Amino acid sequence: MKSWARARFVFSILAILFPVTVLAAAEPATTAKPSATKTAAPADSKATVTKTKTSVEGVHPSRATGRDTTVVGAMREQAIALKALYKTPAVWAFLDSTRALPDPGTRTIYFDSTRQHFYSDAQVKAMSEGDRAKLMSRPMDSNFYYNTRYGTPLAYARALDLVAQQGVKSFSGMKIVDYGYGGIGHLRLLALQGANVTGVDVDPLLPLVYSDPRDQGKIGKNGKLTLVNGRFPADPGIADQVGTDYDLFISKNTLKHGYIHPTRPADKRQLVDLGVDDSTFVAAVRGILKPGGYVMIYNLSPPLSRDDAPYQPWTDGHDPFPRSLWENSGFEV
To answer: Of all residues in the chain, what percent are helix, strand and coil, respectively (each to 5)?
Structure first.
């Protein structure tokens, strides 16, 4: 077992190819809200600003982005600052891809009084006048498009940097699936590098936010982006949509021990229901990966709850699956 940054990480498990590599890391965050995290340099790191020749498809690396106050403009500035914290050309290219992100504009989402059922503009137009009158609406601007409820997509840079340090020189040409993707931003950044990316989530709001035909399909010159809504692998139809032959399975702040195996009673709305037992889930992950593929489970968590405080399942960010299960499923840890 190795610690990537002993001063900051609770644990970091590197499983090296049996044929599949599993990487799992849980990092304590300084904020009580685990989904809105900031990526920072490990305490013992030596960060150096490096100018690279990485480029984004269709965007020359020397093109000045200029300063603007839009969400995309702010993300581009953040990406420039973050490059000093990471070690790999693959992640530098991931950050450089912000220069090619589009401004999606504002989309309107409709919902009922329960806030459990959501509708797109096209669906609402097909309703009767009476049904439309019962709905409420909310505009979703570019901030929600990229950050949703979980913060900047650039927070994926640390997890991807750990993957790249295993010898992945570029995400171009890779087939990647994100379990519990939560937002499209990082998927677009990977696709802009030429990756074939699939995002899987159960949130009923996401298919409506990303309902524009330009949100999926071909991205950049060689990238592809697909979004799947439903439970993998519990629903066979969803498993079929996800497909196989992936180079990387990644999951950030979703596969937490506290979400799946809470140690104290918790509100079911705060938990993740896999729909299958642990062995079936891990076997399904193994089944969609190519030989030599990687699994990255990366969780950021606030401090653990006190014994006398209300239980917060997101504070337990350890790998929910034991080492023996990974090994017995064909992984070498």
So the answer is: 30, 20, 50
Q: What does the block give as tokens for 311?
A: 């239980």
Q: Cα separation of 222 and 192, whole Å?
A: 8
For residues 22 and 13, the answer to whether their CB atoms sit within 8 Å is yes
The amino acid that residue 3 corresponds to is S
pLDDT in tens, 130-186: 999 999 999 999 999 999 999 999 999 999 999 999 999 999 999 999 999 999 999
Q: How far is CA 140 from the centre of its chain?
A: 20
Helix (H, G, I), strand (E, B) or coil at 100: helix
Q: For the whole model, what pTM was predicted?
A: 0.81
**For a pLDDT cut of 70, what percent of the chain falls above it?**
79
Q: What type of residue is 323?
A: R
Per-residue tokens: 230: 């439903």
Nearest CA to 290 out of 185, 172, 164, 176 is that of 176
What is the SS3 assignment for 211? coil
